[in-house]
Amino acid sequence: MKPEGLRQMPQTWHGACIYSLQNLEYIRKQNDKKESRGGLSMDYQDIICEVRDGVAYLTINRPEVLNALRMQTKEELEAAIDRIAADDSVLGVIITGVGRAFIAGNDISEIRIDAKGEETIAMSTQAHRLFDKFEAMDKPIIAAVNGYALGGGTELALACDIRIASDKAVFGLPEVTLGVAPCYGGTQRLPRLVGSGIAKEMLFTGRKVKAAEALSIGLVNKVVPGEELAQQADAMMRDILKNAPIAVRTCKRLVTQGQAMALADGLKLEAELNGMLAETQDAKEGVKAFFEKRAPVFRNR
Ligand SMILES: C/C=C/C(=O)SCCNC(=O)CCNC(=O)[C@H](O)C(C)(C)COP(=O)(O)OP(=O)(O)OC[C@H]1O[C@@H](n2cnc3c(N)ncnc32)[C@H](O)[C@@H]1OP(=O)(O)O
């Protein structure tokens, strides 16, 4: 049951776009009104957002439907991502799911069998807007994949920078078994990560890919025992946050933007951004600390 004030999905494409943006505004206002607990931690219905020592932990919290993404879940995620992006005290993000699923895909109960094309376009456009924000955010995002990551679940993980999987994780893009194709970016991000051959096999067959195979094809960075997932994701984030934040976010920007560029243009951008980095306090501190044989103290400037 939607909380008071959230609008029901209208029938027209135009209405769907307004619905989504208006609800996003509504969720933001609700959280602005609420006394936030410890900085950014806020109350949502479908997700849990907590901040500890500079890291925002986003947890999908719909275990009764294996964390399937309904429109409200995506709106809450977008509201949280917007606030995280704007909060300089947050330096990294870890996303995971409650229970035995990471995200078992888009909420199939929201897929109307007599849906008009424009409704699907609106749904896809909203997810693209959300996942583009993951890539545009200048903070590292780790997906801690704790279980089923199917359809939109694999697509959300693909929009993160790094994927660490539990040995119980299962990936896949089964949309063709439902008569549709992935429409949250999977057809574009998967081939860029694992190559078009493996990507086409996963897309055409819709088959599941267990953690060990996901590691072997480069879909995930590492596989760990389920009970160690949270600790290992945290440890990798802490390793990243030991480094100069400006340099880390420059690397994220170069990889993300470079993928859409010709090599020559990407190399030009790499040189330019490194020229900017060379003039930062952090670059001077890094070299100084090396010769003084001590750990650098980076000030994010
Ligand atoms: C652009 C993006 C498009 C998409 O993402 S399309 C959707 C892609 N995802 C899928 O096709 C996966 C659908 N789910 C499944 O295949 C199975 O689930 C699993 C293999 C993940 C797990 O199977 P098992 O262990 O037998 O659990 P269970 O009884 O099927 O599921 C437990 C409860 O979770 C609900 N649920 C699971 N996935 C979804 C979903 N994607 N949307 C809505 N509900 C879902 C079920 O219905 C059920 O609920 P109840 O206990 O009330 O029967």
UniProtKB/TrEMBL annotation:
EC nos: 4.2.1.150
CDD domains, alphabetized: crotonase-like (cd06558)
One Pfam family it belongs to: ECH_1
Catalysed reaction equations from the record: a short-chain (3S)-3-hydroxyacyl-CoA = a short-chain (2E)-enoyl-CoA + H2O
Family matches, as SUPFAM superfamilies: ClpP/crotonase
Gene Ontology MF terms in the entry: 3-hydroxyacyl-CoA dehydratase activity
Pathway membership, UniProt: Lipid metabolism; butanoate metabolism
PANTHER family on file: ENOYL-COA HYDRATASE, MITOCHONDRIAL, ENOYL-COA HYDRATASE-RELATED
Designated name of the protein: short-chain-enoyl-CoA hydratase
